[in-house]
Write a structure and sequence with these properties.
CATH topology: Nuclear Transport Factor 2, Chain: A
Number of helices: 3
Oligomer: single chain
Structural class: alpha+beta
Shape: globular
Largest sheet: 6 strands, mixed
Low-confidence stretches: none
Distance between the termini: 22 Å
CATH class: Alpha Beta
Length: 130
C-alpha cells in the first residue's frame, strides 16, 4: 500500500503541473488539511481552500512550479523533498528554494499536507531519520 501512496503523491505533483487549477483536486480528500510552515500563514481545510491558496501564491509570479526531488515511503505517510522555482513578473531572475512536505493518505486520497523547512525536519515529524 505504501508504494501506492508514493505514486499517488507523484501523480498529484504531475497533475499540478499539467492543470494547476483542477488537476490536483482528484488526489485530495474534500476535507484535506494544509499546514504551512510559515508562522504568517494559517492552516486551511478543504481541497478548494488549499488549491486557492496555492493559486494565490503562484499568481504572484510569471512562472511558478514545485517538483519533488525525492519521495520517501512511510506507510500512510509520504515525505517529499521539494524544489520550488519561480520567475518574478518584474524581471528574468529565477528564484529557487527547497522545502519539504509530509503527506498523510487514507483510502487513496491525500488528507493532510504539512510543510516543513527541510527534508530532515519532515522525516523527524514523521518519526523517521535519514
Amino acid at each position: 500500500m505504501s508504494q501506492t501512496n508514493v505514486e499517488i503523491v507523484r501523480a498529484f505533483f504531475a497533475a499540478a503541473i499539467d492543470d494547476p487549477e483542477a488537476g490536483p483536486q482528484a488526489y485530495l480528500s474534500r476535507d484535506v488539511e494544509f499546514i504551512p510552515f510559515t508562522r504568517l500563514a494559517s492552516p486551511s481545510e478543504g481541497a478548494l481552500s488549499f488549491l486557492g491558496r496555492i493559486s494565490d501564491i503562484a499568481d504572484q509570479f510569471e512562472d511558478y512550479e514545485v517538483q519533488p526531488e525525492r519521495l520517501a515511503d512511510a506507510g500512510d505517510l509520504v515525505i517529499a523533498d521539494l524544489r520550488r522555482q519561480a520567475r518574478s513578473r518584474r524581471g528574468p531572475a529565477l528564484i529557487t528554494d527547497q522545502f519539504a512536505q509530509v503527506f498523510t493518505l487514507r483510502d487513496g486520497k491525500i488528507t493532510r499536507i504539512e510543510s516543513l523547512p527541510s527534508f530532515a525536519e519532515a522525516l523527524e515529524a514523521a518519526g523517521l531519520s535519514e
